[in-house]
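Entry 14. Ran structure prediction on the chain below.
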Amino acid sequence: MRTTMKDIGRAAASLLLSACVWVFAGAVSPSQAEPWPQRPVKFILPLGPGASVDVTARLVADRLAKRWDQPVVVENRPGGDGMVAITAFIGAHDNHTLLFSPAGSFTAHPYLHEKLPYDPRELAPIARATNTLVAFGVPESLKVATLTDLIAMARAQPGKLNWASATGTNEFLFAGFLKTAGLSMQRVPYRDTVQ
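Output, structure tokens:
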């Protein structure tokens, strides 16, 4: 059976719709329940336009807008290791504003930062729309063909190599890899992973 983007979009929209209904169902008793959403819905994203989460959010938003007969707006808020979007989401205090984000954007924060502008217990994932693949990539000019080659080069030049990663889980995993391997590489933070 061949899966198309249309099938994926339908499945993601149904999953997200079910999760949203489940989350908001507990806020209103059945006797006073009103259809949800009653107005436009906003997805706040911690990454910029063109990132994989942005593409997914826009596909899901399109499907949900048709299903709900309400606009679904995607708002990109890159920067601050995802904390700009997270604090905007928490500060919205609005049941029509959702954080559309890789869970790693906030689950790794307590391990990566001493102080956070939010309480991690304020966030809980409600639905998964995609899977993430983790891979190492190096410029061809480094002449590194294997992970063993990269480790040897980093050991021979401590602190000379740079690395960058998407926020959250990927950053956490690579930092753990460096620590476990006893390597010193300089992290180069980017405001947005598309950069």
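The chain has a mean pLDDT of 81. Will compare against last week's run tomorrow.
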